Structures are given as structure tokens and as C-alpha cells.
Amino acid sequence: MSLKLFVSSVSGNMKIKERQAYVKRILDSLNVQYEEIDISDDANAELKAQMQTAARSHGKPVVPPHLMRDDAYLGDGDDFSEAVEVDTVGAFLQLPSAAGAENGNKDLIKSGDTAEKAAE
């Protein structure tokens, strides 16, 4: 099962860039393997369309970041941040060992910070 992180390398919006960096930092900290898909690259047009369709079907805006596991839509950056805050990232990402992935989640955010604050 492949985890896909949809990002844009050419976004001029600082909040989007920070949210993308936040998601990548958490995934990397948890040693979660993922495929980063740059939706601004024309070579990824088909995957971009798939992500946009999935995001819209869940009532989400199509601005990155978004996460999918194979063809299943998991959520956007806000959904991911919420999973970090409530210590359910493993379940959110549908990791095989969700309980083990949850271990130490709270240490990833500096004490007193929230996911929103980290993404701002």
C-alpha cells in the first residue's frame, strides 16, 4: 500500500508551503515512507486529477497538501494536523502498525505549539 503526498513546488502562498513542510516533517520524523507528487509538474497531471476528484468528493479544497493511500483519499493538511493533535496519525495514515506509529507523536510538536501554530 503506497502513501502519496500531493504538494506543489511552485506555490506562492506561504501558508501552503508551511503546511506542506509540516506534513513532510512529521512523516519523516515517524519514518513513514511516502511518494511526494508535485501537482505543478505536467508529468503528474493524471495523478493530480485523481487527487482533485477525491478531494472534491470529500468537500475539500484542492490546494495542497493532500494525502492518499493507493486510490483512497485520506485527507488534506488540516485533517493531518488534527490527527497529529489527537495522536491518531497512524490510524489516519492507515499504517499497518498504527499503535506503534502513535508512540511519541506528541513529542513532534514543541510543548505549547499546536499543529495550526506550527503551520502558520
Description of the structure:
This protein is of the alpha+beta class and about 120 residues long. It is built from six helices and four strands; from the N terminus they run βαβαββαααα. It has a single domain, classed as Glutaredoxin, CATH 3.40.30.10. A four-stranded mixed beta sheet has the order 2-1-3-4. Strand 1, helix 1 and strand 2 form a beta-alpha-beta unit. The longest helix is centred in the first third of the chain and has 16 residues. It is globular, with a radius of gyration of 14 Å. The C terminus is likely disordered. Belongs to the SH3BGR family. This is Glutaredoxin domain-containing protein. One of its GO terms (cellular component) is cytoplasm.
Q: What's the quick description here?
A:
The protein has one domain (3-119): Glutaredoxin. The chain contains six helices and four strands, in the order βαβαββαααα.
Count of alpha and pi helical runs: 6
CA radius of gyration is 14 Å
Q: Based on CA inertia axes, which overall geometry fits?
A: globular
User: What's the structural domain tally?
Assistant: 1
CATH topology: Glutaredoxin
Largest sheet: 4 strands, mixed
How large is the share of residues in beta strands? 15-25%
Order of helices and strands: EHEHEEHHHH
CATH architecture: 3-Layer(aba) Sandwich
Please provide the count of β strands.
4
Instruction: Write down the CATH class.
Output: Alpha Beta
N-to-C span? 31 Å
Rounded mean pLDDT is 85
CATH superfamily: Glutaredoxin
Give the fraction of residues assigned to helices: 40-55%
Poorly predicted regions: 99-120
User: Which strand order does the major sheet show?
Assistant: 2-1-3-4
By helix and strand content, what is the structural category? alpha+beta
